[in-house]
Amino acid sequence: MRKIICINEGWQFIKNCADPKTTEGAEQVNLPHCWNAVDGQDGGNDYFRGSCLYTKTIRKSELGEGQHYLEIRGANSSADVYVNGELLCHHDGGYSTWRVNLTGALTEEKNLLAIVVDNAANETVYPQMADFTFYGGIYRDVYLITVSDTHFDLDYYGAPGIKITPNVDGKNATVEVEVYTTQLKAGQQIVYTLYDQEENELQRLASADKKVTFEIKDVHLWHGRKDPYLYCCEAELVEGDTVLDNVCSRFGCRTFKIDPDNGFILNGEEYPLRGVSRHQDRWGVGNALTKAHHEEDIDLICEVGCTTIRLAHYQHDQYFYDLCDEKGLVIWAEIPYISKHMPTGRANTISQMKELVSQNYNHPSIVVWGLSNEISIGGSDEDLLENHRILNDLCHEMDKTRLTTIAAVSMCKMDDPYLQIPDVVSYNHYFGWYGGDTSMNGPWFDKFHAMHPNIPIGCSEYGCEALNWHTSDPRQGDYTEEYQAYYHEELIRQLYTRKYMWATHVWNMFDFGADARAEGGENGQNHKGLVTFDRKYKKDSFYAYKAWLSDEPFVHLCGKRYIDRVEDVTKVTVYSNQKTVELFANGVSLGVKEAPDHFFYFDVPNAGETKLTAVSGELKDESVIRKVDTFNEDYRLKEEGAILNWFDIEEKPGRLSLNSKMGDVISTFRGKLLFMKLMGKMLGGNKKKGEPKKKVAGFEVTPEMMSMMNGFTVLRLLTMAGGMMNMKFTKEDLLNLNKKLSRIRAPKKK
User: What's the pTM?
Assistant: First the structure.
């Protein structure tokens, strides 16, 4: 029988070391382990990227007789395995399972196993450019597997050795089971056993064939969150009465299709995919998550009511895919082919895709394979297109049952040829955060749908950042919890009411590590999560989605961290999935309201200290507000190094200012003249015949990009231009520009 030993305990670790024979400076660690758990989250983009050494002594007598394999379930991003100083294997790709046959190298009773892991920058292994930390370490479990000479295959891309393909036809299903083994000997055969979810044996079949088919009558379908029913198939390799090896896998029987007009169809029923994206890291832990961490994440995602998760931007832990199967989440699984196309990285995209599909084929939760993310951000060329065609064909060759997709980015033109390669398309849009306006999102998708009526379109990323900053006047770019809540209210209204959108994924469920980031007042993180990095606080926007998606009755008062308020009458928002909500201020009812969109707004008199109570039937939630004379500056982000903050700018009624939207400024004749020279600098000078197209920060200036730029305030656009294009504006420059703008009448709002 197969013997599996977890060897997570008692490793010796040496940082910044690639010598498999050294022992100097070692410290003892247990796996999972991540060496960037601290410096990969504190900002500065200075976390250690290089080689580190893990060593452990392996006693041969403890393994038993047979073939011995090392199984590593995640080591980022490249690794070399040595036994007694002999190099046995090199692996590129930090997010998948891979194995090494140690048998011939275990020549002693005590054998030194050494693994050199390297997360240094290179031009061949993805990812190399992305908005998240590339944590180094052996951050998932490691096992030693002993099998007989005849065994289920352990050498093919980390796959489990069993491939299960259900095919549903009406009330019944055929289940094709294929196994991969070494050469069977005379007298050896395979016993296949099918079990239901309650582990009752349904059918048993003994055969020398490596591919068999079962028939299930009155099949119980896997139906997402409503009924995630799972069967199981076990395969035993036997010789007489002796079981030599065994493998098993759960599977689900379901049908699905993605319709360009009606979205996602599960088992013949419309099943809207509305959910989130997820990164796998944790505060103070990096990527070295425990099973408890994964369970907490899936529980939070289920609490908000999601039906889908985009598992970005790489292969996640097998345990999390198992949880998705059990909970009924529909999954987008992808490889880290992201942001920057590397002509020298094609082989790595192919190997990572083979690992992703081979290792995850049996998971019923997965419906699409993601080819890439924002890879055409700087435009597409023939090498990039060919890489995508190869990956797309590879997915369809390996898996006839699922579709392919990409996550394009706003700057990608709607007629870009790479949009024609996958089966379905999604876009990453941040209108309302990175330029543009929230109102642009829905109409953009309508335009795409009209242009490509046969291409299913979804939204793979949208979101904005929020920390513990607060205001009663939320503005794009202020990082307040209130603006994030407003943003998601608007996006929910637009995206959730367009049934043709095959899937929508909030970016992101959780704040995550991005050591290069320095914004929002807390460096080293992307704060677009609905939940904080430590999973301790659910931001108000979490409850906006819960109100739309969850059947669990609740009522939530927003703004619990925003107590001190200066206005005499303040707006208070309540989120609930109930039909009506009544709000009480110090026990006095402020009325009962209905809100078909689940967002209830109340104007609350603000005097002294007020206890607020939101009530709907037996449900209630409470908070406190307090009248103050001056704004509590603890609630306001002050950008470090900023020459001006938006609240420091003098604004005259009816006039333009640095806080005006660029679209409003250039819609006036004088404003357009004022910015012609400045915009000329940003566009790289006037274009002459034969010169390349105008670009901003390396991106072609398309109508879509101009729409985004028009949505920025003048101050935010100039601040971002200063960072991306090394254009320096002094305080005097900005104040002088504000003075000129204040002489121009603002356009009247329609």
Answer: 0.92
